From TrEMBL:
InterPro entries membership: ARM-like, ARM-type_fold, HEAT_type_2, PBS_lyase_HEAT, TOG
Keywords linked to the UniProt accession: Repeat
Function: Catalyzes the hydroxylation of the N(6)-(4-aminobutyl)-L-lysine intermediate produced by deoxyhypusine synthase/DHPS on a critical lysine of the eukaryotic translation initiation factor 5A/eIF-5A. This is the second step of the post-translational modification of that lysine into an unusual amino acid residue named hypusine. Hypusination is unique to mature eIF-5A factor and is essential for its function.
Molecular-function annotations in GO: oxidoreductase activity
Keyword DNA-binding in annotation: no
Native species: Rotaria sordida
Positions of HEAT repeats: 185-223
Keyword Electron transport attributed: no
Record protein name field: TOG domain-containing protein
UniProt domain TOG: residue ranges: 32-251
Length: 278
């Protein structure tokens, strides 16, 4: 029934079963409040959501995170923020991922120094779902008026000692896209093309491509052409992708001749990505 069912009586009754001894009932009640949406965003519900983040049942905790994300910036209270920040360090990867998602949907109000630092650290999480959720959260925050702060953090993170964080930072800058195509960002990504970790080099290539023609300086194009000779296949594929995304600015004789030569490669994937670049 969704939002249409969100009368005061319904919301109050749903709140009354949030303490049910059965975890499935508690989780379902939060799910119903999620469907009702902003109408359910009373101070009592938000406070109960904060408490539910500490529930012993993981499904209840996940439902609470989802509900907080649905409510968005109205859910930003000290209690909620403290709970979500703690969840970013939880042993349970679902909790860490859910907290990332909720914080991302809360936007600029949630973009405190501590939250930003934790999300950047989560780019190197051992769990792929957490890394993905952290990237999505940072991109969402960049779309909700916190762009400069997010981009600055990511530029710094691209030099982190953890290759997972470096690669995640490059990837996220690419997801932000043209808005991130500033001189210091481009310079950092170009530097990352020399990273010792191939995943970082690949992410840097992709990020430059996703920013499009704004990054297509002669230096960038030359560095991407050099990356076509990288020892790692993924890096070479990413370099071709990036050159293809840069349009006519990348259509120099040197680039074209290099791509033509790759059409004779014995690897079908190389030939395919060379075709894509054209």
């Amino acid at each position: 029934m969704g939002e249409k069912a969100g009368t005061r009586e319904v919301i109050n009754r749903l709140v009354s079963v949030l303490d049910d001894e059965d975890s499935t009932v508690r989780s379902s009640a939060w799910g119903a409040l999620v469907e009702i949406g902003e109408k359910a965003a009373t101070s009592e519900v938000i406070s109960r959501l904060a408490s539910a983040l500490g529930d012993q049942d993981s499904d209840v905790r996940n439902s609470a995170c989802e509900a907080l994300g649905t409510i968005g910036d109205k859910a930003v209270t000290d209690e909620v923020m403290n709970r979500l920040v703690s969840a970013l360090c939880d042993y349970n990867s679902d909790d860490r991922s859910g907290a990332c998602k909720a914080l991302g949907k809360m936007g600029e109000k949630a973009a405190t120094n501590e939250v930003m630092n934790r999300l950047v650290s989560a780019l190197g999480d051992k769990d792929a779902a957490v890394r993905s959720s952290a990237r999505e959260a940072l991109v969402e925050m960049s779309e909700k008026a916190a762009a400069s702060e997010v981009i600055n953090r990511l530029v710094s993170a691209a030099c982190d000692e953890d290759p997972g964080v470096r690669g995640g930072a490059c990837y996220t800058l690419g997801e932000i896209g043209e808005k991130a195509a500033r001189c210091e960002v481009i310079n950092r990504l170009v530097s990352a093309l020399d990273d010792e970790d191939s995943a970082v080099r690949s992410s840097a290539c992709e990020a430059l491509g996703k920013m499009g023609e704004n990054t297509a300086t002669s230096e960038v194009i030359n560095r991407l052409v050099s990356a076509l000779g990288d020892e790692d296949l993924d890096v070479r594929d990413s370099a071709r992708y990036a050159l293809g995304e840069m349009g006519e600015k990348a259509a120099t004789s040197g680039v074209i001749n290099r791509l033509i030569s790759e059409l004779d490669d014995e690897n079908a994937n190389v030939k395919w990505s060379a075709c894509y670049a054209f």
